[in-house]
Amino acid sequence: MSAPKQDISLRGILSEARRIIKAKRNHFTILSLILVLPYSFLLLIYPTIFPFGSQPNSTLLLGIYCIVLLVFSLSSIGTVTYSAFHGYYNRPLDLIATLKSLSSSMIPLFSTTMVLQLIISLISFVVGILAVLFYTSYNEYFTLTMILLVLITFVYVTYIQLNFFVANVVVVVESKWGYAPLKRSAYLMKGAKMVGFKMIMLGVLNSLFVWSCFLKSWKADGDEFWVWMLFRMVVGSFWMTVVLKYYLVANVVLYIYCMKLHGELAMEIHAEEYVSLLIDDNGNKSVVDVVHV
User: Fold this and answer.
1) Helices in 164-192 by DSSP H: which ranges?
2) pTM (predicted TM-score)
3) pLDDT, tens digit, for every residue of 58-89?
4) In the chain, where are the structural domains located?
5) Residues 166, 200: Cα–Cα separation, whole Å
6) Tally of CB atoms within 10 A around 210
């Protein structure tokens, strides 16, 4: 029989993520500096290169920017996920081997991202068609109908994001690609959507913090503008780097906890009652209990 369902707490996941990063501090620091930090910087510098409300001066420049941003994004996901999974089991981590792992995960991550974006785009297209139909048949219920349509779309897209929350981890760990990781993620996330939703909310709060820095610098003039822009670049990039690193590691921990929730972890490591999953450099152990019925 399968293992009984157990609660997965956000606090426990973040605590385990912190433990993994602390145990392999130097490794994750180097990855952050060479991959995650440039990605964070590129995200924050976008409004400076391409101000809102203005047309890009060069389509080529915008295309190059998007390609570089995508490469750093996928590289950050691939390397941090690879490191977090092996670090969870206290396996030795080598920087060169970690970077080489991108050769087998970069294209699958890209294909999975494209499939997910296609699904979201199809939903947006259907919503757009419905909006046009409601607009052409304008009546006294138009405003209410549009509000309901937006709310339903938001809920549905959020639900999809929750189902596919650990898809990137599946790509890296299980070597799946395309639609397969999305399907696998939807199965694993059964019973864990609430903690996934909480993690999304943490991401939203982080985005609001960075956005508030952007608004302040956008409204400033003269020397004050450059002071706030420098603040945004330095503090914002550092903040986003730390948050993204923890977020990616926490995704891996959630993936492993989901496997435990579905009884797969017990079969994989052949546990009897308790299995030591992580031993850091100081000899401290993180233990996950696996109960058999």
Assistant:
1) 167-174, 180-188
2) 0.80
3) 778 888 888 999 999 999 999 999 999 999 99
4) 10-289
5) 12
6) 18
